[in-house]
Amino acid sequence: MSEQHTYRVIVRGTWEGLTEQARARLLAEAGEHGMASMRFTEEGSLSYEPAPLKHFSMRYVVVSDAADGEEMAGAIAEDRAQDTLRGLGYGFGELRSTVTDLDTMKINRKSRSRR
């Protein structure tokens, strides 16, 4: 069995070809998708600013084989984002992702000061 790593992935994109209905729904729901809604989850969390309604980001937690690396985690998250956005009827352009491997991330801890 191969080693699994947990990745945090931010998928970014631009709204494109939104219908008037989709635009109206995004504007109406903007309060639910602001800074406070930003969470890394398996199903993803969508965030965007209503003015201007141009860019969005989605945050994902992806667990996959460590051997497949960050590139695969990014591709998995982008696929999830495409499926979600298409399911909601939202038009979007090219997606790009930023991936952090939580299992290899170095944590700098402050040492206790000595007296």
Automatic annotation (TrEMBL):
It holds the Pfam family DUF6204. This is DUF6204 family protein. It comes from Streptomyces hyderabadensis.
